[in-house]
């Protein structure tokens, strides 16, 4: 009887351990929070990055970071895979104050993007902005 119980416990542990370790790996995938200076250094040093503005079109038109693309947070889930199809792309994301960019960064991670950097709001951006 004890042998049978030990076998059942062993089998349950063998099933449970891989499943729980897989879920922990998924939980650990997260976006990274950086400041404006770190974002600027990445922008200046690296190629093939996307600067993603998740504000409204009106906010974007009033001034945005050079080379940023606009995908308003309300349209993120329907437009991002079209505009940024490679989920390994380094994405630097911002909004006005940091709230929408944090929410959008979480959505990107949930959608499978794995190289997401939230640098908060343009109100903390001490560098040049442009208007189109």
Architecture blueprint of SSEs:
Layout: H1 2-28, E1 32-33, H2 36-45, E2 49-53, H3 57-62, E3 69-70, H4 76-83, E4 90-95, H5 99-110, E5 116-121
Parallel strand pairs: 1-5, 2-3, 2-4, 4-5
Shape: globular
Continuous helix count: 5
> Distance between termini?
77 Å
Strands of the widest sheet, in order across it, are 1-5-4-2-3
pLDDT < 50 runs, ≥5 residues: 16-27
Number of domains: 2
Bin the strand percentage: 15-25%
User: What percent of the residues sit in helical stretches (DSSP H or I)?
Assistant: 40-55%
CATH architecture of the largest domain: 3-Layer(aba) Sandwich
- Order of helix and strand elements from N to C terminus: HEHEHEHEHE
Largest sheet: 5 strands, parallel
CATH topology of the largest domain, by name, is Oxidized Rhodanese, domain 1
Superfamily at the CATH H level of the largest domain?
Rhodanese-like domain
Structural class: alpha/beta
Oligomerization state: single chain
- CATH class bucket of the largest domain: Alpha Beta
User: Over the alpha carbons, how many angstroms does the gyration radius reach?
Assistant: 21 Å
Extended strand count: 5
Question: Average pLDDT value?
Answer: 87
